[in-house]
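Thread: "does anyone have the structure for this chain?"

Original post by V.I.:
We have the sequence but no experimental structure in hand. Need at least a predicted one for the grant figures.
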Amino acid sequence: MTIHTYLVLHLSSVIVLLGYTFYAFAAPQETRRRVLMITGIAALLVVVSGFTMLHKLELGFPRWAMVKLVCWLGLGSMAAVAYRKRASADLYMIIAFVLAITAVAMVYVRPF
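Reply from O.Q.:
Generated one for you, tokens below.
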């Protein structure tokens, strides 16, 4: 598969991951299992497609990719946190937003 295929897969998975993560902050408790399953699959697709693109571009494992990996870990776990910590939903939504913005900034700016 080409790099463009992995890029589309990566970006589509990120959109699904972010959408369902923010949905989890307002969703009823009955949707927990389905939402966690979808965010888990999306998070897996994000990391697999991301590492495949790094390999195909022969970039190694630069520091900006390490920062993106930390952001991915945070976003991947945020849906589960959203169901457990309803009282602190505002704080966790801000954290999720900051993680997403940081991940985007790392790929475009590549500061290190």
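V.I.: this helps a lot. The first helix runs from residue 3 to 24.
O.Q.: and The chain has one domain: 3-109.
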